[in-house]
Amino acid sequence: MQDAQAMRAEVAQLQAAAIHALQAGKEDEAGQLWARVLERDASHGLALISLGKRAFRHGDLGRAQLAFERLVAADPGHTQGWINLALTHQGRKDEAAEQSAIDSALRTDPYDLVALILRANLLERQGQRHKAASVYGAVASVAPPLAALEPGMQGAVTHALQFRDRYDADFGSFLDGFLDNHYQAMAGENLQRFRESVDIMVARKRRYESQSMVFHYPGLVPLPILPRARFPWLDAIEAGTDAIRAEFLQVHAADRGFTPYLSYPPDIPHNQFAELNNSERWSAFHLIADGKPVPEHAARCPETMRLLAGAPQPDQPGRTPTAMFSLLAPRTRIPPHVGVSNVRLVTHLPLIIPERCGFRVGNETRDWNLGEGFVFDDTIEHEAWNDSDKLRVVLIFDIWHPDLTPPERAMITALTEGIQQFRDTAGEFAL
């Protein structure tokens, strides 16, 4: 006991002496003192990071790597240690190891500005332009104003903003060319709202209306819950509630195919969804996903699929339509959030509704009632809760916004194809 106390006291004295030597400009002496600290405490964090930085400054990347590896092995949650290790791997031109260290840094803190800059820079060097632009966008979101940054960080953040601006400009030019033939084919049609929607998406104009997270369409009145009379096709789906509910109960009894509603990777900010991410407390059985039926699931719910075919489902290849059974476990709340695009609305058909369940969109709060469907704009902040001791189940599917004209819908479909061709990706829209 006394030996341990004496050792801690000696380490503290050596640490104080090392710091004093460094402040006095005696770097070599400080290095020797830190080395003596490590002889007594091999996982001493300040000693490891100090010696690692000293080795890095002197170009001894091998010694720096060893120090930072020991640091993060002793403390895996040391974000700065991972960042320093990533910079060391960058200096040794080991991109795989650099990426691994950056991923670890962002797992410990998904909002770390330096780690995000390093990830974007690596993606840029690798020629992964679309991914780099996305991460540089995250840098812009978390960075304080340039004037509030240290001089050494201002250049990196300025580069992030400039890269994103150039990307948006190129994206806009590409879409202009891609859509030109479609514009010509619809000469004489009023596509002003569509054109403005593209300008907003590629940052040529500011967005002032909705909170659509991905694609905002101007001129669509943001009504929280739309008048039921606008959707006569919903009559047939409501009339089929018993059949839809019976099919759900069959698939639920089989307990196969249900997945968490949200599944974000650990190095992506979860914001208000951290509690529900990868959680079975909010789960789904997907009938249609990313614009295509899920074959096995759809085959188990033929009547539901037949009834859904009567809805004006949006056509955004690789993204919509979508449809699912949404399950909310007892005593679970879905926090306030907004959807990705106002070009499609969301329909709820309640199937199993215990007491003390509710739903709010904007300033409108309502109960779910069995078999009574409603349509709402999910780009307006909304939330849901199940304060009961029983399961809540709702059939959820999306539809075109009814105020979009047929030419506008056709152009949105074409736009989605253009986005996929530009990015070579699919599946970014979700309910």
UniProtKB/TrEMBL annotation:
Residues 241-402 form the Aspartyl/asparaginy/proline hydroxylase domain. Pfam families: Asp_Arg_Hydrox, TPR_16. Keywords: Dioxygenase, Oxidoreductase. GO terms for molecular function: dioxygenase activity. InterPro entries: Asp/Arg/Pro-Hydrxlase (IPR007803), Asp/Asn_beta-hydroxylase (IPR051821), IPNS-like_sf (IPR027443), TPR-like_helical_dom_sf (IPR011990). One of its GO terms (cellular component) is membrane. Belongs to the aspartyl/asparaginyl beta-hydroxylase family. This is Aspartyl beta-hydroxylase. It comes from Massilia polaris.
